[in-house]
TrEMBL record:
PANTHER family: ARABINOSE-BINDING PROTEIN-RELATED (PTHR43649), OSMOPROTECTIVE COMPOUNDS-BINDING PROTEIN GGTB (PTHR43649:SF29)
Leader sequence residues: 1-22
UniProt xrefs under Gene3D superfamilies: Periplasmic binding protein-like II (3.40.190.10)
Record protein name field: Extracellular solute-binding protein
């Protein structure tokens, strides 16, 4: 009983502190008993994560552990893995002021509007109040920040994205690992001439292709390009924009992606690579268990390696700076933030990193060591060690940066551009006009 009262007092102080410093809280006195105990209840988390993934499984376990000392507590997980459907649900609930206690979101223009409207707790202040802020990797937190540096989402992952390749297939085609992004179209042509699919890609989900258009501007102009582009302060007609538009068209002409890629999904792309049919595959460390363990077909296992995002002549970003996301973040609803939510978050966030690292994944914090599975190949450790050598700049995925309408149009136009259905000039005109129409709605 004394421990519960003490926890309630600490949680209440946390909630009050965040309210005082602008974090936002509307603590309901009915949730705390006259003796200071927290009154357990159900709280909800609106999720956009794989239902059987490590994040959800661990948080379920931690919620059950918390409930043992707080009978009546329950974490209700509202899962919508399909991202477009999730975004629609999030926007609908936000408009109706019915967001649950916790909800997932990227650092999108829409999320920034919610923060400005006072609907989200300041995550930096929250993590500092809970005394866990300094445990987090700076890169994991930076991925969640808005353009002004403010932090309103809590990361549960830390990933590195590589271009995985089959050494035997490159050797068969007589090509080497590309030293520059500009080498890739010619490399694709050589692989095609050797009867090899150059790059396997998940075209159905659209975000994998959108990764590619972000690469050239990141090397040419740095992370500021997309920050300006989404506000209409930069254009695809600018030099950095034209370089990536023309490069994407070249990837299409060189038939870099598998035939019918736009209709093929995540598992299709991965199977093409792991079966030795495709030479390259751009994916993150969340797939280490499929790419760097004995699950991989022995016929290709020893031929698999990876390289990081190539630079270009005159790159303003370094070779150790590339896409290093911390996944979709968790926001805390300021309207429903109270001592119970605070106390549960403190409990969960202190225990989560060790549980997550035990699954063989990189934790968003630096206070735990990732457990390498017994069936891992040497490539597993090599991938993890890459996290020890990262620069300060990140290549942000554009689907987390652009407004929803612009992002949807970009994904559609990209497929048309790569398939050769539209010209670079048509793509440029369409996208610059789309941004000009939509940016003012989010950036005033």
């Amino acid at each position: 009983m004394k421990n519960l009262i003490r926890a309630a007092a600490v949680a209440a102080a946390t909630a009050l502190a965040l309210t005082a410093c602008g974090g936002g809280s509307s603590t309901d006195p009915s949730n705390v008993s006259p003796t200071g105990e927290i009154k357990p209840r159900e709280i909800s988390w609106l999720l956009s994560r794989p239902a059987d993934g490590a994040v959800i499984n661990i948080m379920k376990k931690l919620a059950d552990d918390y409930a043992k000392d707080h009978p009546g507590f329950e974490l209700n997980l509202i899962t919508t893995p399909d991202r477009p459907s999730y975004i629609q649900k999030l926007e609908t609930l936000a408009a109706a002021n019915k967001l649950p206690e916790l909800f997932d979101t990227d650092a999108t223009p829409f999320a920034q509007q919610l923060a400005k409207q006072g609907k989200m707790v300041d995550a930096e202040k929250l993590l500092k109040t809970l005394d866990v802020y300094d445990d987090y990797r700076p890169g994991a937190l930076d991925y969640q920040r808005f353009d002004d540096g403010s932090l309103y989402m809590i990361p549960f992952q830390f990933e590195l994205e590589f271009i995985w390749y089959n050494k035997a297939l490159l050797e068969k085609a007589g090509v080497a690992v590309p030293k520059s992004l500009d080498d890739i179209p010619a490399m694709c042509t050589a692989l095609r001439d050797a009867g090899i699919t150059p790059i396997a890609i998940d075209g159905q989900d659209q975000w994998p292709l959108e990764r590619y258009i972000a690469y050239q501007p990141f090397r040419e102009a740095g992370p500021d390009f997309v920050t300006k582009l989404k506000k209409g302060e930069a254009k695809f007609s600018d030099p950095a924009g034209q370089k990536t538009v023309n490069w994407m068209a070249e990837l299409g002409k060189a038939k870099c992606f598998q035939e019918g890629f736009s209709a093929q999904g995540y598992s299709d792309a991965q199977n093409q690579f792991t079966s030795g049919q495709a030479a390259m595959y751009n994916i993150g460390t969340w797939e280490l268990s499929s790419l760097a363990t004995d699950k991989l077909d022995p016929a290709v296992r020893d031929d698999i390696d990876f390289f990081t995002l190539p630079t270009t002549a005159g790159s303003v970003t370094a070779a150790n700076e590339f896409v290093s996301p911390s996944g979709i973040g968790m926001a805390v609803n300021s309207k429903t933030y109270d001592p119970l939510v605070s106390d549960f978050l403190k409990f969960a966030l202190e225990k989560y990193p060790a549980e997550y690292a035990a699954t063989g994944a990189l934790s968003p914090t630096t206070d735990v060591e990732t457990a390498v599975p017994a069936n891992a190949t040497p490539l597993y450790r090599k991938a993890l060690d890459q996290a020890k050598d990262l620069g300060s700049k990140q290549a942000m995925p554009w689907d987390t940066q652009l407004d929803p309408t612009t992002n949807g149009r970009l994904q559609q136009e990209l497929v048309l551009l790569v398939q050769g259905n539209i010209t670079p000039e048509q793509f440029t005109s369409t996208m610059d006009n789309t941004i000009a129409q939509n940016a003012p709605k989010f950036f005033k």
